[in-house]
Each structure stands twice: as C-alpha cells, then as structure tokens.
Automatic annotation (TrEMBL):
PANTHER family named among the record's database cross-references: 5-OXOPROLINASE RELATED, HYDANTOINASE_OXOPROLINASE
GO terms, molecular function: hydrolase activity
Positions of the UniProt region annotated as Disordered: 552-579
Domain Hydantoinase A/oxoprolinase residue range list: 198-404
Start and end residues of each S-Me-THD N-terminal domain: 600-686, 740-806
Descriptive protein name: Hydantoinase/oxoprolinase N-terminal domain-containing protein
Pfam families per UniProt: Hydant_A_N, Hydantoinase_A, S-Me-THD_C, S-Me-THD_N
Organism: Branchiostoma floridae (Florida lancelet)
C-alpha cells in the first residue's frame, strides 16, 4: 500500500510554517516569511517541504493539506474587506431594549451594520413560542432587505440553540425561496446560549464570507499550481479541522487556530496530553493548558476585534515575550519597588528582528541578543553582544524566566506542578538548565520550531451540542445520552470515521431560579478524519513533473515580498476594563443631583457586580441600556435620600423597582424595556382603583379577584381607562388616590438589578435615590429590608414583555408574596419586572440601605483606577472597604447537580496570604454566595449577610455565579454587611438559618470600621457618600 502523507501549514504574523507528516512522523518542515497576500507565503512553505520530500525520493500520496490562518480575524481588526450585514431577529416582544449591533465598536458598526429587523418569533427556555412566525411580515422584511441592496443576512432567534428547526431553519427556507442570491448565517450554528454574543458572532461570520470565498479560492489555486489536487482543510478554534467548503460558511471557526495548532502540535510531538504549553514566537508567547490532547476552552465570553462573542475559543494567555522583545534597563522612576530593574517587552521588533537585533548588525537590544550573550543560542554574530553588561544579561534572563513562571501559574488549574512543553522558535530564550517554578518536567520536543504546523497537519474533526434541558421532562442520563449521540453524529457528518469518535467534553450548568431542574448541557465529540485518498489524493510522483516546483527566479522574486502587517491582538475576556477618560462625579451645585457620565456608568457596572456577591445578574445588559439612553440624550440622575421631601418635586412616594427571574434566561431573552415600567404603572392603577387592605372597590367588572395560598391577587390587571381618566376619577373619588411618584430606587444593589432603576429613571425622567433595599443581592423578595422592618407589601405587581400585569392586593407575609410572584414569573418565561408597595421618604431613610449607589461607584472607581495605575485592584478594594481576602486561586469544581457548591483551591503562590496556605475553599451559593469554609476543618470563615464576592484575580472585575467556570483564576473577598442586615430581626430573614443552615453555623459580623459603637452608622455613610443635599462631598 502506498504511503499516505498530509501537509500542515500555519500562517503566523511573522512566519509561515509547513510540515509533511507520514503517520506520526515528521518527514520534512520549513519556515518561511509570511507575506501580505498570505497565499504567496503558503505556496512558498508548501513548495519547500515538497522539495525536501522529492529530494529524498519518497513515494506515496498526499491525502490532504490543512491550513491554519489568522487572515479573517486580521480583516476584522483592521476593518477591511468586510461587507454590511442585515440582521433579522426573531424575538416577538422580547429583547427590544437591546437591538442588534448595540455593543459594537462604532468604527466597526459603520462598516458592517446594514440594517436590523425585529420580527415576531422567538422561544422560551422550554421551547414554547414567545410568538409565532408571521409569514407575511417575513416576506415584507425580505423585500425590504433586497430593495436596500442587502445580500448578507443573519437570522437569530431567541433560544434557537434548543430547537433550531422550530424557527431559524424555517425562516432560512423562506429567505432562500424568495431571495435565492442571499447569503445566510443562522445564529445557532455559530454560537451558544447568550443572545447578543451569539448574534454578534453570526454578524462577524457573515461579514467575512465574501473575503473567505476569495481567500479559499486563492488557496485552492495556489495549491493547484503546485500540482496538489487533494482536498484541503482549515484548522478550527477547537483544534479540529473544517473542510474548505464548510469554511466558506463558517470563517469565524478559524479565528484562534494559531495558538490551538501549537498546542495540538506540542501534544503530538511530545506524546503528552495533559500539560501547560508555552509557544514563544517573535513578538508574543501564547500559554495554555492541554486537556486530553486538546486546548482547554475559554470559560467566559471573549472579545474579538472589540466585539463580545461566545463561540468556542481556546483559553490562551498571551504575554509580551518573544524573540524580538526589546530589552531595556529601568531606573527607579520607571518601576515599582518590587519590579525587576530590567524590562523585557512588550514592545518588539517583530519581523524586523533580523535587521534590528544586535546579533544581526542592528542597534536594538532584544531578548534574542540576551539569549546569545547568555550562551543559550548561537545566532547571527555573537561578537556583537560580547560587550554587554553581564549583570544586565543575567537580570534579563531572570526576568524572562519570571515572566514564564508567572504565565504558567496563571493558566494552571491547581497548585500542583504540571508538565511544561516549550515550542516555537523563541524557546531559545529559556535556559533549559534552570528549574521552572510550577513545572514537574520541561520538554522541548523534536521539531518544536514548527509545532504549530504539526498541529495543523493532524486530522481530527468534531461535533458540538449546546442546549438547555428541562430535567422534569427527561432524566439527566437520557439528556446526556441524547446530547452525546447528537454530537457524535455531527462529528461523523464532518467526516470522522464512525468507530473513532470519542466524547471529549461533557459539562452541565444549572439555571438558577428555574424550577424543575433546568440545566444547560454542552457535549463535544471528536473523531479521526477519513483519508479520502482514492481518486482524491495527489501522487508525489506527479508533483514536479508538471513543472510546478519553484525555480530559482521565482524564489528570488518571492523573497522581495514586503513584510506582513502586524499580527492581530489576541481575543480578550469580554469583561475587559474600559479605557474611558476618568472623570469626577458631576454634582449639581443647587439641586445636589449627581448626573451620571459614561465613566460613572462603567464604575457602577464594576461596583454593583462586586456588591452582588455573584447574584443579581450580570450588569452588562443594564450598562448597555443606560449607555443607549445617554446616546438618546436622556439624563440619569441620582439624589441623596435626605433630599426626599425637601422640594415639591421631591415630595411624594418612591418606587422600588427590579427585575426578577433567572439571570441565565436574561442573557438570552434580554429585556423588552417595558417590563418594570408596566409593573410600576400597574401599581399606580391599583392605587387609582382604591386598593386598600386587599380590597379594590373601583375595579372593573371584567377583572376577577382571586384568593389562595395566603394571597389575594389578579392574574392580569390592565384597566381600560386612560391616565387622564384615572386622574379625573381620583379627583372625584376619595377612595381613589393616584400617587405621583417622585423617584425610584433599587430593590438590591447587586448586578443587573442595580442598573434597572437607572434605566427606569432615564425612561420616566425620574431621579434615582442613592439607596437600596438589600445592601447587596439576595435570592428572594422577602429579603427586601423595608419588608423586614414592617413596611406594607401591597399593592405590588409583576409584568412581562408581553404586557401581562399580575397584581397582588394582599399577602399574609412577605414570604407569601415571594412564593406567589416566583410562580407567576416562571409562567412569564422566568423573567419579569417587579414593583412593591410605594415607600414614603421617611420609610426610605429608616428602612433602606443608604448610599449604596455611592458605595458601588467607589468600588468600581477603586478597581478601575488601581488597574490603570498598575497597582493591585484586590488590595485597593480591601483597603477601600475594610475587607478581607479569603483566598486567591482557581475555580476547580462546581457540582452540576447542586446549586450550593463551588470550590476554589489556593495556588502555591498564595502561601501566607490570608493565613491559609495550600487550602481549598468551598463556597455555597444560591445564585448569591452564602457561606465560605475551608475543607481541611470545615470551619466557616464567612457567611451571609456579609458579602462574599468572587472577582478576577488580576483585574478585580466581578464574576457572576452563572459565569463561574472550571479553571478561572479568582480572588474571594469578604466585605462588611450594612448594619440593617445585622440586627436580630434581619438575621431571621437573611442570616444563615434563613437559607437552611443548622444552628451551629453562626453569623459573626465581619465589621471592623475604626469607630466607636455610637457612631458606626454615621461614619459608614460618610465613607460611601458621593452626593448629599446640595453639597459636593467626593472623597479619594
């Protein structure tokens, strides 16, 4: 049988590498300069490896060529070769507050935003329709897009990943029938649960398709010119292959193939499947973890070219260390006391190393020069670096090793030492004789220089399933089995040998606040690609006889090609820190109103996430709504609680507002923008109808008042009267008093619910009181402090995106209110706006947590300023809040069947921090974090109502419970609870026993403000106050 060969090519920012593989043997390899047109460099690299094969007189068949390229992500970063896209969102009444393109960078939006159309359709989490598709509406939409010149369309439906055939596929069929020339991307085929991110990924995919067609055709022609008529593939983000034909439909699947190829190649060359891989190139080093021979995937959203996405990307840390990294001596003014006196990178000569480096006759000191001077490498002319200061060389080598060790520590999943694999041409920078902290072994496998091309040459394909499953309708085992079978079928459809398919990944994430044990299941299957060599491969004997091998003149001409553009920046976590200009709060000198700026919104988004203790939902959606309101010219104002009642405009009741439901549902269904406003109007209508003591004397005959389970309620209260009718009736009927609401406040100062009153205030032109009803986030409504301290519960209301307004006239207790509204919320699709009985000014000041918006702003401001100034955001927060660091480490386990466990191990780097070296910390949660204990002695070290919050270990940004994933590097902090949560009556509702903990779990307040017992309240408030009654009081 003839030998079978495969060719792997990886196009990097500096070099294009190629190899020929025969089974598990590298037959030949080549490293060529990347060219601006990409294909020329690819052709040169392939030609070079084929020439080596021919020189050795090897016989056999080339079965395939696999290419890894950053060409498409380059185009996004550089905003070139992109086309406008029209988005058709199947959403019905949902999601309208955040339309397509709402979070795109403006420069990219101008290029790719063709149009968007919000039409009927969309699904609930259980597969039920939000609304049915309307064919005539869709036909009108199709005609509009055609008449406007649109040819590239994205179809995205709410919860389409759970049932794509229900709506997205049907709409696609209609488009193809009416508009045969259209190019379509269906969102369920490129992204996962999370509507905006999946929609964004689909847009990026569609806007690249014309460029992808040109590029793939250019590759095909280049390979044909070399005599290669075999199939060719591109490498995907997950380390598997996608055919050239499939790439035409899914260019986004190739974005991160470079780091992925290096990691896959390292595993192949070393025969090690679980390790940390360090790929050191000319400008940067990519560091990631291998798990079962494949890169670990990023567990959070990532930004690509400034756009938040959620398609599967490798979890890779990029640092500014490479062969071309510029080395410079730092004086005291340039560095912190703890920093090295020598800086290596992040600036680099890049592809200019061979001209600018000292050993090549240039004038720039680079990391390569240091390696040559230290005797680690033999490149260029060593005589050019013999005069370098030996202390400088030693310090630079030390700094390089420190950077490598720090990177290893950041990507490791535990404190245990891990095998380290070094690949890439820049590995000459690492002294193989030195121990590397965190490494159990260090390997530099044969052919390490071209590990990326080796990874590209490997032949595996995959299938992935990502869906929401209601375990009340099936068993967990059945759901997992079906997902595995579907993933395996996808792999086989992609070309895998049926018998080779293996399940490589199974994960479950339970959805909080959703009944019947609903969970999100993700399964990946991988199999070996069938080599379709019969009649499809290229015989080596035919290559060269057709005159396709390079001539010396061709090679000389290609050597003159200009250097390529710089490589694109790597994908970054979507929770990146903003780069806005820092501003101080703007306090109106006469009214005392704090008018929010965009910087204030960014500070609040970070701060409320920290105060949310993992709950309340991610503030990202609220942040986008607020910024959109600002763009529309709306003002967002915050007033101090003592301002209430001081002027006629501020004399009247205050409405506490929130969203209730499941945060995981929110990120898919988004918000209509009317839910909370409708609930507020419902409460006003109840007052207008004379609601009192559970009675509604002025109710219309068409409404049925019901009783049961300790509540009196109406299923849907929407009176036919207009606002003016209600006002007139109220003036003539003493029983009907329509309140004029003067302000709104947050029910909880955590996550999305901290942003909701700002959204409502902007929409209704009402100020937001600097206060809230929880001082953090809590999972249940009865934990609202005004209810704890005796304020009336009713009337109250919840409303959904369709305008249904469920009213509560009377509840035997706040817990009965919670139970009733929770059941209604589930019927509404697990999300609704909620408003309680209105509060008086004195009730706000006596029963609410004061200055909570200010506290959130100060927290966010502290984090952003610390990060900007290069100091530890964690320490800055602890100092600002008088908090305590419990642990720094990696999230190592989250039990999929139990909402109440999360485990965070301490890394070896944390010895001495917090006094718990080498421990494992377990955090119980019910969406919000409740209790933290170390597993060694099961001792509780923090518990509710104190604030246990989890933040990114480096940036200090908060990580919500639904975003916690295996391997995240985090810090666990405990911050003091407001005093109103620490009283005996409050602890009955929000203390550990309220969450089912036994009596031996005793709340011991973590409260250590430096003040006497009789003035704790005053000092605590002064610490957080930003604005007061006509007085500017900003502390830094």
């Amino acid at each position: 049988m003839a030998a079978l060969f495969s060719i792997g090519v990886d196009v990097g920012g500096t070099n294009t590498d190629a190899v020929v593989l025969q089974g598990d043997r590298v037959v030949s390899w080549s490293k060529q300069v990347t060219t601006p047109d990409v294909t020329t460099g690819v052709a040169r690299a392939v030609r070079a490896v084929l020439a080596q094969v021919k020189d050795r007189n090897l016989q056999g068949t080339i079965t395939r060529v696999n290419i890894g390229t950053t060409h498409f992500v380059n185009a996004l970063v550089q905003r070139r070769d992109l086309v406008p896209v029209s988005v058709v969102r199947l959403c019905g009444t949902a999601s309208r507050a955040l339309p397509p393109f709402c979070d795109f960078p403006q420069d990219l939006k101008k290029v790719v935003c063709g149009s968007y159309h919000l039409v009927n359709g969309g699904l609930q989490f259980d597969g039920q329709e939000i609304s049915s598709l309307e064919e005539e509406e869709l036909r009108t939409c199709i005609r509009t897009i055609w008449e406007e010149g649109g040819r590239n369309v994205v179809i995205v439906g709410i919860f389409s990943p759970i049932a794509p055939q229900a709506q997205e596929e049907k709409v696609a069929d209609l488009f193809r029938a009416e508009f045969p020339e259209v190019s379509l991307t269906l969102s369920h085929r490129v992204g996962q649960i999370g509507l905006l991110e999946r929609e964004n990924a689909a847009v990026l995919n569609e806007c690249l398709k014309p460029l992808c067609h040109r590029t793939v055709e250019a590759f095909r022609q280049a390979l044909n010119a070399l005599g290669l008529t075999c199939p060719f593939y591109l490498t995907q983000n997950d380390g598997t292959l996608i055919s050239a034909e499939q790439t035409l439909e899914f260019p986004v699947r190739t974005f991160a193939s470079g780091p992925t190829n290096s990691m896959r190649g390292a595993a192949f060359l070393s025969d090690v499947e679980d390790a940390v891989v360090i790929d050191i190139g000319g400008t940067t080093s990519d560091v990631g973890c291998l798990m079962g021979g494949f890169p670990r995937h990023a567990s959070t959203r990532v930004k690509v070219a400034g756009v938040s996405t959620n398609f599967r990307m490798p979890d890779v840390l990029s640092i500014g260390l490479g062969g071309g990294s510029i080395v410079r001596q730092m004086d005291g003014a340039d560095r912190n006391e703890t920093e090295s006196t020598v800086q290596v990178g992040p600036t680099s000569t890049g592809y200019g190393l061979v001209r600018e480096g000292l050993v090549f006759g240039g004038a720039t000191l680079t990391a390569t020069d240091v390696a040559v001077a230290a005797g680690l490498a033999d490149l260029g002319d060593p005589g050019h670096v013999t005069s370098l200061d030996r202390v400088l060389v030693r310090q630079a080598v030390d700094r390089i090793h420190q950077m490598v060790e720090e990177a290893i520590d950041q990507v490791k999943l535990s404190g245990e030492d891990q095998p380290i694999l070094l690949v890439g041409g820049g590995t000459i920078l690492v002294d193989g004789k030195r121990n590397i902290s965190g490494a159990s072994s260090v390997q530099k496998p044969q052919h390490y220089q071209v590990a990326n091309a080796v990874g590209a040459a490997l032949g595996q394909v995959s299938g992935t399933v990502d869906r929401v499953v209601n375990l009340a309708q099936t068993t967990r085992d059945q759901a997992i089995s079906r997902a595995k079978a579907d993933a395996a079928r996808q792999a086989v459809a992609a070309g895998a040998v049926d018998s080779s398919v293996e399940i490589t990944e199974v994960s479950e994430v339970p959805l909080a606040y959703v009944p019947s044990n609903v969970t999100k299941v993700t399964v990946k299957a991988v199999g070996t690609l069938k080599d379709r060599h019969t009649g499809a491969g290229t015989d080596l004997a035919d290559i060269g006889s057709t005159g396709t091998m390079a001539t010396e003149q061709q090679m000389a001409e290609e050597d003159a090609v200009a250097p390529p553009p710089p490589a694109p920046p790597p994908a970054s976590p979507a929770g990146h820190l903003p780069t806005l200009q820092e501003t101080e709060p703007q306090i109106h000198p006469e009214t005392g109103e704090w008018v929010l700026s965009r910087w204030d919104v960014e500070c609040l988004a970070v701060g409320v996430g920290i105060l949310g203790c993992g709950g309340g939902g991610s503030p990202t959606l609220g942040r986008l709504q607020i910024l959109r309101a600002m763009d529309e010219g709306r003002k967002i104002r915050i007033i101090a609680p003592e301002r209430l009642g001081t002027t006629p405009a501020l004399t009247g009741p205050v409405a506490a507002v929130a969203q209730m439901g499941a945060p995981t549902i929110w990120i898919e269904k988004l918000f209509s923008g009317t839910e909370t406003q409708d609930a507020l109007q419902c409460v006003k209508d109840l007052y207008a109808a004379g609601c009192s003591n559970g009675q509604l004397p002025n109710i219309e005959d068409s409404f049925e008042v019901k009783q049961g389970d300790g509540v009196t309620y109406l299923d849907d209260y929407r009176p036919a009267q207009t606002d003016s009718d209600r006002q007139t009736d109220a003036q003539t009927d003493a029983d009907g008093d329509v309140p004029e609401i003067v302000a709104v406040l947050s029910m909880e100062i955590g996550g999305q619910n901290s942003m909701e009153p700002l959204v409502v205030g902007a929409a209704l032109d009402l100020p937001v009181v600097d206060a809230d009803g929880m001082g953090r986030a809590f999972p249940e409504l009865q934990m609202f402090t005004p209810l704890i301290y005796g304020c009336e519960t009713c009337p109250a209301a919840v409303a959904d995106d369709k305008g249904q307004r469920a009213a509560l006239l009377q509840a035997d207790s706040p817990k009965h209110l919670e139970n009733h509204f929770r059941a209604v919320c589930v019927e509404m699709g697990c999300m609704a706006g909620v408003v309680f009985n209105l509060l008086t000014a004195s009730e706000v000041r006596s029963t609410c947590i004061l200055y909570s918006q200010s506290r959130a702003w100060r927290l966010g401001h502290t984090v952003l300023r610390a990060y900007k100034n290069g100091i530890s955001p964690i320490q800055a927060v602890l100092q600002q809040e008088n908090g305590r660091l419990l642990a720094t480490g990696k999230v190592s386990f989250g039990c999929p069947e139990d909402h109440h466990q999360r485990v965070c191990p301490r890394g070896s780097e944390d010895r001495g921090v917090g006094g718990f070296p080498g421990e494992t910390l377990k955090i119980d949660f019910q969406n919000e974090n409740l209790v933290a204990r170390f597993l060694s002695d099961n001792k509780v070290v923090a518990c509710v109502p104190d604030l246990i919050t989890i933040v990114d270990a480096d940036s200090g940004t908060p990580i919500a419970t639904e975003e916690q994933r295996y391997g995240l590097r985090v810090a666990v902090l405990v911050l003091p609870a407001p005093l109103l949560l620490c009283t005996p009556e409050a602890l009955q509702v929000v203390g550990p026993q309220a969450f089912g903990y036994p009596e031996d779990v005793i709340y011991s307040p973590y409260f250590n403000l430096r003040c006497s017992a009789n003035n704790k309240d005053e000092i605590l408030l002064d610490q957080f106050r930003v604005c007061s009654a006509g007085v500017i009081s900003v502390e830094y």
